[in-house]
Specification:
Largest sheet: 6 strands, parallel
Number of strands: 25
GO molecular function: 4 iron, 4 sulfur cluster binding; metal ion binding; tRNA-2-methylthio-N(6)-dimethylallyladenosine(37) synthase activity
Number of domains: 3
Protein name: Mitochondrial tRNA methylthiotransferase CDK5RAP1
Enzyme class: transferase
Organism: Poecilia reticulata (Guppy)
Strand content: 15-25%
CATH superfamily of the largest domain: tm_1862 like domain
Strand order of the largest sheet: 4-3-5-6-7-8
Keywords: 4Fe-4S, Iron, Iron-sulfur, Metal-binding, S-adenosyl-L-methionine
Distance between the termini: 79 Å
Length: 581
């Protein structure tokens, strides 16, 4: 039984509506005349309100008691998913850029798979082609533009058949170049930004009806925590797990905060659930992902929200206020590393500012947390670092390197560098070269500067280094980097390394390849080896297994050796495998 009550309540005390603004007059006569008119209109308005209908005129009878016979049912006249189902249409993915885009591909596919789409590795069979894109540099975007021209030519040919093809752009480029992609070039049917993958079924349904469809809105909350990515790692040996999205650092050269939005962290419970699932599937290596992965801060539950401020590396600062509370990266790394002692844990991409001692000590203590740290420097010049808004000096960076090597003696370091940033002089460039020599990285990612719209540098700085100068400086950085990497790698010749086998070498079917704890590629012959150290019986080496490999030679990008025996991560004592010094 339900009582219908009046739905409108009017107060007895009310003030007249001020609906006339004060007139602007140029004489006293005009002002007096205007005042008289205003009073007349106001009096007339009051009389109309007083003589008009009252609330009771709209309610002709007292409240009525109604008998409602309501039976709940889950049936609907129309399915809420009507038109959003894939109807077995085949989707082809192409992924460009960073590991986050690999993970985004798996999330997008998980969403579409549940709606009845099928995945194909054959472009010719595809009904939908989705490009997961990168905007970090101009070259990455140009690659996508060239690919779109090729796909558009294919699409036009398909229009003559009964199986038309739809093209979609996902990820950072969708957000950054939405106008050019949809309106000017008219090359695509669907655009979905990094935070809009849940909307893909609706966007594709609209495209199937002949419309262009777009959703590039950024979110302050979206982490896809409830969506389990469909992993497509090679035979399930390794997997990426996204733990946070976006970035708050606002480095002056970087487009990421504008294409992926503000930082937000995925609840720790959903991360642990996914890692446990991967362990149950036999995955041997998990890489935790985030644009600023080590700034992870889970505030999803009340008990996590304390008052303790986020700790930074000594000598580092941020452009934003210090954050408070939440489960930090060290807490997450601790919990993840306990799930499976025989599963390697890596993480990327970190920022140097977020390496307080507790993170470093945890890496040193845990056998299955890889002793490899990516430490993006970007430049060795204080002047350039300040212009980049990196929040540290050359001296603070080198102090952090010394601290890392002291806490983790066998650590392997990698880095990023940008050549030819705004205002960079030859002296700045030489300081970068000297930093590369001083630290001794074994892996590097080096690029010439490419100015991006929306960034601080685009609005405030001048891209004043000539392209040919950028190229020359980049080549010099690469040359020095390779020299130092070869020197660092040569230090492990003669040591025994624990290697996770990835599979057959791309260059020879007679060789296998895998990676060390320090993330260096190792090539070794495909042959049967002892099932364990000092055992007489042998077994073939298969992908996904751990083997001990004696390192015989080293180059700047890989090591060569010979496998000694099968082993496991938990049974191998780290000191017996001489690491990078």
């Amino acid at each position: 039984m339900r009582t219908v009550k009046p739905f409108l309540c009017v107060s007895k005390h009310w003030a007249p509506l001020r609906w006339l603004s004060k007139p602007r007059n140029c004489s006293n006569v005009a002002r007096a005349s205007s005042g008289e008119k205003k009073k007349a209109v106001s009096d007339n308005f009051r009389r109309q309100v007083a003589s008009g209908p009252r609330l009771q005129d709209f309610i002709k009878s007292p409240p009525v008691t109604l008998a409602v016979n309501y039976q709940h049912t889950d049936e609907h006249y129309l399915s809420e998913d009507l038109g959003l189902l894939g109807d077995a249409r085949k989707v082809y993915f192409e992924t460009y850029g960073c590991q986050m885009n690999v993970n985004d591909t798996e999330i997008a596919w998980s969403i579409l798979q549940k709606k009845g789409y099928q995945r194909t590795a054959d472009l010719k069979q595809a009904d939908v082609v989705l490009l997961v894109t990168c905007s970090i540099r101009e070259k990455a975007e140009q690659t996508i533009w060239n690919r779109l021209q090729q796909l558009t030519a294919m699409k036009k040919k398909r229009l003559k058949t009964n199986s038309p093809m739809k093209i979609g752009i996902l990820g950072c480029m969708a957000e950054r170049l939405k106008t050019e992609l949809l309106e000017r070039e008219k090359l695509v049917d669907v655009l979905a930004g990094p935070d809009a993958y849940r909307d893909l079924p609706r966007l594709l349904a609209a495209a199937a009806g002949g419309q262009q469809a777009s959703n590039v809105l950024l979110s302050l909350e979206e982490t896809y925590a409830d969506i389990m990515p469909v992993q497509h790692a090679s035979q399930g040996r390794s997997a990426f797990v996204s733990i946070m999205r976006g970035c708050d650092n606002m480095c002056s050269y970087c487009i990421v905060p504008f294409t992926r939005g503000r930082e937000r962290s995925r609840p720790v419970s959903s991360i642990l659930e996914e890692v446990q699932m991967l362990s149950d599937q036999g995955v041997k290596e998990v890489t935790l992902l985030g644009q600023n992965v080590n700034s992870y801060r889970d505030t999803s539950e009340v008990q996590f929200c304390g008052s303790e401020r986020t700790k930074l590396s000594r000598g580092f600062s941020t452009v934003y206020r210090a954050k408070q509370g939440g489960l930090r990266f060290s807490d997450l790394l601790d919990l993840v590393s306990r799930i499976d002692p025989d599963m390697r844990i890596r993480f990327t991409s970190p920022h140097p500012k977020d390496f307080p001692d507790e993170v470093l000590q945890l890496i040193a203590e845990r056998q299955n947390v890889c002793k490899q740290i990516h430490l993006p420097a970007q430049s060795g010049s204080n002047q350039v670092l300040k212009a980049m808004r990196r929040g540290y000096t050359r001296e603070a960076y080198l102090d952090l390197v010394d601290n890392i090597k002291q806490i983790i003696p066998d650590v392997s370091l990698s880095s990023d560098f940008i050549s030819g940033f705004c205002g960079e002089t030859d002296d700045d460039h030489q300081q970068t070269l000297s930093l590369i020599r001083e630290v001794g990285f074994n892996v590097g990612f080096l690029f010439a500067y490419s100015m991006r719209k929306k960034t601080h540098a685009f609005h405030r700085l001048q891209d004043d280094v000539a392209p040919q100068v950028k190229r020359r400086r980049l080549e010099e950085c690469i040359s020095v980097f390779r020299e130092e990497a070869e020197r660092v790698n040569a230090a492990v010749v003669g040591s025994t390394q624990l290697v996770l086998v990835e599979g057959e070498s791309k260059r020879s079917a007679e060789d296998l390849c895998g990676r060390t704890d320090g993330n260096m590629k190792v090539i070794f012959p495909k042959e049967d080896v002892a099932v364990q150290a000092s055992a007489s019986n042998t077994a073939p080496i298969r992908g996904g297994g751990y083997v001990l490999v004696k390192i015989l030679s080293a180059g700047s990008q890989s090591l060569r050796g010979r496998a000694l025996s099968h082993t496991s991560l938990r049974s191998t004592v780290t000191p017996s495998c001489d690491g990078y010094k």
